[in-house]
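User: Predict the structure for this protein chain, please.
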Amino acid sequence: MPTALSTLTTRTRDTPERRGQTRMALSCTALIRINASITFPAQLRDLSSGSAQISCDSRYALMIDPSGTGKMLAELKPLELALALPFSGQTDDFKTRCRVKYCSPTADGTERNKMVLGLKFLSNDFAMLQKLDRIIEYLTNA
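Assistant: Here is the predicted structure, written as structure tokens:
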């Protein structure tokens, strides 16, 4: 079961928040679909109404960005992100298309062999985005 950790207003103590939306630190399992035949597990780290940050095994991240430099990210086809988010004592599914904005090793080094990916949502599915807003509001007020 995913757990809401806290609402974040800054990325780190020294780096100001760049997003217009509030981020919710949230830990739950995510699935990333690269194409019809490749899906891999990841761990959701935080979520906002327009983006998410995940961590995954570096082998999977290198499938997305083989160069490991981020230079190929603009050329990538969108990925699909699938989550089971907590809502009113149960879970609710959330799926969206997204683009990888960055792919880098974990900053604090606590997760060996892991990389962090920043995902920007591309979905124009209004009902799915409304569902996400309701879930974030519920978690913020829980």
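Residues 1-15 have pLDDT under 50 and may be disordered.
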